From TrEMBL:
InterPro entries: AB_hydrolase_fold, LYPA1-2/EST-like, PLipase/COase/thioEstase. PANTHER family: LYSOPHOSPHOLIPASE-LIKE PROTEIN 1, LYSOPHOSPHOLIPASE-RELATED. It comes from the Eukaryota. The keyword Ribosomal protein does not apply. It comes from Noctiluca scintillans. Residues 92-294 form the Phospholipase/carboxylesterase/thioesterase domain. This is Phospholipase/carboxylesterase/thioesterase domain-containing protein. Keywords: Hydrolase.
Length: 320
């Protein structure tokens, strides 16, 4: 016999929402708010409750809001900023003064809530690093409806989405600059589709970023912008790819690594025979070692313990 509030009851209620295409009761609306943003976006699309695309609240505006859920580790405050329930932002902020940042972009139909465990693992030995993972706007594609930065930027509509996403994320990077973290102290990271956008942002940068981390991604460079990619020369790139990845072929990943090397990037292509479309333990070890090289603790930085805040504070350093 099922108890009220059990997983079985929630499943039955979810089925009834799909079957009747209605969320007009309090318990149904409560269930919707508890779903992952990607699932919720798809369900709202099925119910005809949302326009396409649903841009929602930009990440930098979410970070300035007061709506948050604070958890924590021994080295980092963990905050989910949920001002827009469809576009939560994960922020892991060090308990000492931050001197470096990682901006992580999730994959297609995923969200920031799915990368909390990965962030915790990567930051174990990086007590001075901020980790920011925004959630993409919800869009429709041939695969369905849900959070998506873009697809591959090859059509005019996709190019527009790619541009809009890039602008949003550049605002986040500028916020990091406002607290004294220069672009050369920021690693751009992306999983699958998120890696495509991270690649495009990094290559266009007028100043080189600390590094580019690509996980299970083909790393498309988006629309062609001419022969020069100012952010490419000597950009440190780590690509981790699984030999059993059935969504992004090994050939596509190797081809993009070759392309990035031709542009002047310093690419390390780490292949994991037994890994699929995801992150394995071996990848975590490889990434941690690489991050230590890209994001060393700033020389002379003081380990001043700080309180949790989602907002960037003005810096006394000169503008960069």
């Amino acid at each position: 016999q099922r108890r009220p509030g059990s997983a079985g009851d929630a499943f039955d209620l979810l089925c009834s929402i799909f079957r009747e295409r209605s969320a007009d009761s309090a318990d149904r609306r409560e269930l919707l708010t508890s779903l992952d943003p990607g699932v919720r976006a798809h369900l709202r699309s099925c119910l005809g409750l949302v326009s396409d695309p649903d841009h929602g609240l930009a990440p930098v505006k979410c970070l300035k809001s007061a709506s948050q859920r604070v958890l924590g580790t021994t080295q980092h405050h963990t905050v989910f900023v949920c001002e827009d329930p469809l576009r939560p932002v994960l922020l892991m902020s060090p308990r000492i003064k931050a001197t470096t940042s990682i901006l992580f972009l999730h994959g297609l139909f995923q969200s920031s809530t799915m990368v909390e465990q990965l962030a915790t693992e990567l930051l174990r030995e990086l007590p001075h690093t901020r980790f920011i993972a925004p959630t993409a706007p919800s869009r429709s594609s041939v695969l369905g409806h849900g959070p998506s930065w873009c697809e591959d930027g090859r059509t005019e509509c996709q190019q527009s989405a790619l541009h809009d996403s890039r602008v949003e994320l550049l605002h986040v990077i500028r916020q990091e600059m406002s607290i004294g973290i220069a672009p050369d102290r920021v690693v751009l990271a992306g999983f699958a589709e998120g890696g495509n956008l991270a690649t495009w942002i990094a290559l266009q940068a007028p100043r080189k970023y600390a590094g580019l981390l690509l996980l299970s991604t083909a790393g498309h460079t988006g629309p062609q912008l001419g022969a020069k990619w100012p952010g490419a020369p000597q950009l440190q790139v780590l690509r981790c790819h699984g030999g059993l990845d059935t969504l992004v072929s090994d050939e596509a990943a190797k081809s993009n690594s070759k392309e990035l090397r031709a542009l002047g990037c310093d690419v390390k292509h780490a292949h994991f025979n037994e890994a699929g479309h995801g992150v394995c333990v071996g990848m975590l070890q490889e990434i941690r070692a690489w991050l230590h090289e890209c994001l060393p603790h700033a020389v002379g930085a003081q380990d001043v313990r700080v309180g949790v805040s989602t907002q960037a504070q003005p810096s006394t350093r000169p503008a960069v």
